[in-house]
DNA sequence: ACTGGCTCCTGAGGGC
DNA sequence: TGCCCTCAGGAGCCAG
């Protein structure tokens, strides 16, 4: 399940193969993704050269001179660089054939992912324009979280997973960050103190940074653009650790549903 | 303005 | 061996 570190890992993996490359052909075997693949992309992308491979939140941005292709990997999306002519397999929905003989292939078993197209500045695309700060950028801090949480009764865990607050904190890293900051995921966001939000912001930065360093988390089926699994799963303290002993105090890790998501925490360490 | 619930989708895993 | 049920979840969307 790609979260921000996984998307960043994919970005770094595919960028060297894409930058400066011309798209010679696009093959869409399954246009019904989260949203239909736009006709404007199918018409507009062939012949264009990728000027960069960027990331905003969990969106991968592939700018060209006439427009920007936007990938989202959803739950199960994969992007891989293959040789042209590699036989396609189940759920291989889209190929972007490149001038040098490589092919960028999008595979997405559950089709929660998307491929979009914009001719404007990508940050003005409706899906991107209201996003909160990147967790590893200057604009993100404990003070920012504290300010945005004023008066909010929503539990702190779904609060930090809201992309208008901060982007890229998915379910795994929300659980892990709250554990590291010793904050119960059930607390109303508006009741978490500034000092606690400082700890939480620091935990989010460290955990996401470390996860990127480790190449993402492989739970089930994540692999990078070059097909390498991630290694961060070996460092998970609470996520998917139900009934296992807490690494800090030995208490059994608890689990509940919060906003329709599985939430893991230590009821003794996290208050 | 917030909040919770629904929805898309497929495959894994458990029970019988 | 096979069938059916539940669960997993990113994130937009909508009703209250």
Describe the structure.
By secondary structure, the protein is α+β, with helices and mostly antiparallel strands. It folds into two domains: 4-124, N-terminal domain of MutM-like DNA repair proteins; 142-265, Helicase, Ruva Protein, domain 3, CATH 1.10.8. The protein is 24% helix and 20% strand. It has six helices and ten strands, in the order αβαβββββββααααββ. The strands form three sheets. Strands 1-6-7-5 form a four-stranded antiparallel sheet, with helices on one face. Strands 2-3-4-8 form a four-stranded antiparallel sheet, with helices on one face. The protein has a two-stranded antiparallel sheet with strand order 9-10. It starts with a helix and ends in a 6-residue tail after the last strand. The structure holds a DNA duplex (16 and 16 nucleotides).
